[in-house]
């Protein structure tokens, strides 16, 4: 069965309504968005530039691309901006025209929808290896000789598992040798403070078949604004992506956001200090429940397995807390869940609610 966009976990309105809860009454742990919210610097920029709405955005997005390029020490020509990471996932699926694609299972559902007319080969991740991906990807590549694109999510959503830079270089080398496009979705990578030692951005020059997708969405808490970008040193790929894009797909405010957000060091530093404290707090709290097997998180969400038969999402929803059931991810059963790391107050509420659920009250 093809997965539709409507089945994404963050869309809890319907379920909440069914239980007589309004959006305001529910603590949403299902969407992995930075709880610091929209950066003040962005609010100021948008307010100060409201009148720019009377003009079309600059069609080539030169200033935006230049800022992203300088942030990553690349050239403007290596940066293709998009209306969220999603537009670029669908864009690259189109331009590579891949007929046989390797995807992780489980992983983010949109790759499968983007490569809808390709044969999909799954690198099936298992709990026995803590959902580690590299070895399985390499083995699948060795076995399947006619793959023309590999699309990986690093860190993977929903498991949070990382493929190390060293492992990814091995995968990229094999892909390069066999003319296979390697697409890496690094939508959550910026939540890792030392992401330069994990991201494949430093290897773009070495691997012309490599394309990396990033998003402003999660880290800067702007899923409603829509801004992502793709990085590649492959001129043909970059040109094809630029040629096929619809004009003005990035709105004026998203264009401005991308030009200022990397300079908001206060927000960036606050995010790192919130995350290092709260991820540890929530992880420690969750591991304290014998009912749960919790996987060590790398970024701003935590993946776990419930060891007893219980509809945990429903149990928590009636207590005003919404978590992501991972039952609709390929390769996962209904006892897998994912929660976002939120503020201390919210994380404590989740832990208290779990305490009540598991003690049977
Ligand atoms: C791994 C991953 N990539 C991309 C996206 C989509 O990002 P955007 O909202 O920037 O299109 C998501 C959203 O959930 C995601 O989890």
UniProtKB/TrEMBL annotation:
Aminotransferase class I/classII large domain sequence ranges: 26-354
Superkingdom of origin: Bacteria
Cofactor requirement: pyridoxal 5'-phosphate
CDD domains registered for this protein in UniProt: AAT_like (cd00609)
InterPro entries xref list: Aminotransferase_I/II_large, CobD, PyrdxlP-dep_Trfase, PyrdxlP-dep_Trfase_major, PyrdxlP-dep_Trfase_small
Pathway annotation: Cofactor biosynthesis; adenosylcobalamin biosynthesis
Catalysed reaction equations from the record: O-phospho-L-threonine + H(+) = (R)-1-aminopropan-2-yl phosphate + CO2
Tagged with keyword Lyase: yes
A single GO molecular function term of this UniProt record: threonine-phosphate decarboxylase activity
EC assignment: 4.1.1.81
Keyword list, A-Z: Cobalamin biosynthesis, Lyase, Pyridoxal phosphate
Biological role stated in the UniProt entry: Decarboxylates L-threonine-O-3-phosphate to yield (R)-1-amino-2-propanol O-2-phosphate, the precursor for the linkage between the nucleotide loop and the corrin ring in cobalamin.
Name this protein carries in UniProt: threonine-phosphate decarboxylase
Organism of provenance: Listeria swaminathanii
Source species taxonomy: Bacteria, Bacillati, Bacillota, Bacilli, Bacillales
Encoding gene per record: cobD
